[in-house]
Amino acid sequence: MKQEDLILLKKYLDGNTSAAENRAVQDILTQHEHDEELKRWLFDAWQKTSAKKELSLDINEGWLEIKKTISNNTKSRKIVHWPQVGVAASIVLAITLGVLFFWQKPASDPEDPVVEQAVFIEKETGKGEKLNISLPDGSFIKLNTSTKLSIPANYYSNNERVVYLEGEAFFEVAKFEKKPFKVITGNITTTVMGTSFNVKALSENEPVSVALVEGKVSVANAKDEIILDPAEMTTVRPSTGKLSKETFDVEVITGWRSNLLIFDEILFEEIIEKLEQWYGVEFKIKGAPVGGKRYSGRFENKPLALVLEGLGFSSTFSYEIKDKTIFLNFKK
Fold first, then answer.
1. Domain count of the fold of the chain
2. Percentage, residues of the chain above pLDDT 70
């Protein structure tokens, strides 16, 4: 192994390589896939990085050996987090490089059967945050606010691609006929081959909705299964578990991807809840609007103040914004 190659590999593990250097790294690893000394060096170098960054490598049979080598030298279970990255840094995840993940084995008695624990990559957004994620297979996911996505470390090495969702996300799934893509939300499983759709599952006590934009999906629970065509959605209520079809307005359901905030005949309480999530703020409210009144509105990339001004035309209130707190008073 050339010294300059080792220097490049170390630079890569530290996350400081360019797209061209990433391709050079892939070539180096492919050429030396059976180099036991390199395997040991990779593990040691990985351990010394500041955040023990995950290795973004080409997924092939040869490098499965390195995965096993690292597994046998690791004592504790770790959850590897993908870093928050900008456009330039995300090239590492978006190009034709996969991700080499690690299985961790718990300490056990030599005579006890060894049980492998899966490692999960977790991405999470808070109030007022959205996040784009590119998967190794070319699939794309956009997380809405207050959403958590868990991706098994062996995501691409199994016969199917599975992710776990809590919250809301839009999926654009790369098509691989031999590896169906599944989104699991509680006891609801959405299965696709290659398509784009929106899944909303905010909590265990709230309905789960799946809205299909393109392609075809199967939505199933323990009781039933339904096939959706484009422009169809299903909403599964925890109390019944019943699956049924209905049409939907694509802009209303998926407009959040383009920072399009839409209110479609909803109560003021629902608007406040949505604004708190959208802008990452908290409302302090005095008084109340006229009972039962519903509101509609469409705001594209608008600051909160302009949204409140727009709502003020149809409801009489005053407001004051102090940092992340909004004081709203209804006039008597």
1. 3
2. 74
